[in-house]
Amino acid sequence: MSDVTLGTSLNRTLGLARFNWLLMVRNRTTMLYAFVMPLVPLGLLFASGGDDPDPTSGAATIGTALFMALLFPGYYNVLSMFVSRRDEMVLKRLRTGEIRDLELVASMALPGAAITLAVAVLTVPIAWASGLDLPLNPILLLVAVLLSIVTFAAFAVWTAAWTKTAESAQLTSGPVLLLALAGLMGAALPESWQRWFDLLPGAAVLDLTRIAWFAQDAQDGLDGTAGELSFLETWSHAAPSLGVLVAWTAVAVLLAVRSLRWEPRS
Fold first, then answer.
1. Which of 150, 178, 173, 175 is nearest to 163 (CA)?
2. CB 262 within 8 A of CB 86
3. What is the pTM of this model?
4. Is 46 exposed, middle or buried (CB count within 10 Å of its CB: 0-12, 13-18, 19+)?
């Protein structure tokens, strides 16, 4: 693809993304889910800040905030937007012109992705003001967030395949939301169950947050001590969780591509 073609494609995608952003911010319910839900854990983190904050608790709170951003603006908003545009035949009409399929999907995912990245950036000053350390490996944290954004945007397109209306998305999104949130509860389960829950995307995001931000390995996360990993060691310790997240990204994208529908079922 030439530079001119790539630039034109990018301009079309950003133009559609700006339009989708405007529609999103005009919907009060969507904005409530998109902004308030991710900020609740961060508010609790700031309110509980003290002279000697617990890194394990901080990692769980920050991971939960990131996950709320991934689930609501990053997943649910894309799902409802895709279904409503499809049922109104907007997507079908747009595809008759020069707009490519990838541009359409990306333009719907970008507003949620922007909010998720904004939440990720906002966690840094809030965590620092709460007495927690700054992220040791922000590159690893960014990689985890970007992979998660792609994963849940793809899951949204997949879920849209069997979602008849935007209103029914409240029900059809349940399995993905349950799958995602179950990974956050693995630490509270018996050890024999934890290894299975560690394979879920929520557990991978939480582990990568703990390793990238607080340099905690598995044992640090259990006993509540501060991590002692170096910058390079965080990459090796993060490899299993990063592999789990990459696998979920690949599965989600494959499901989205195979089930993509641009118009309502007849």
1. 173
2. yes
3. 0.90
4. middle
Which of helix, strand or coil describes residue 178? helix
115-160 per-position pLDDT tens digit: 999 989 988 998 888 888 889 999 999 999 999 999 999 999 999 9
Phi, psi of 219 (to 5 degrees): -70, -35
Per-residue pLDDT, 158: 95
Domain ranges, ordered by start, for the chain: 3-259
How many residues would you count in the chain? 266
pLDDT of residue 143: 96
- pLDDT for 45: 72
Closest C-alpha among 146, 110, 144, 157 to residue 252: 157
* Cβ–Cβ < 8 Å for 83, 226: no
Asked if 113 contacts 149 with a C-beta cutoff of 8 angstroms, the reply is: yes
pLDDT, one tens digit per residue, over 38-58 is 778 877 777 766 555 677 777
Tell me 72's DSSP state.
Answer: I
Rounded alpha-carbon distances, angstroms, from residue 211 to 63, 144, 201, 247, 265: 11, 11, 15, 19, 45
Please say whether the beta carbons of 183 and 204 come within 8 A: yes
State the burial class of residue 47 (Cβ atoms within 10 Å of its Cβ: 0-12, 13-18, 19+).
exposed
Residue with tokens 């990689």: 143
Element (H, E) at 248: helix 231-259
What 3-state class would DSSP assign to 48? coil
Distance CA 73, CA 79 (A): 10
Region for 134 from its dihedrals, namely left if φ exceeds 0, alpha if ψ lies in -120 to 50, beta otherwise: beta
Tens digits of per-residue pLDDT, 171-185? 999 999 998 888 877
For tokens 């934890």, what's the residue?
A: 194
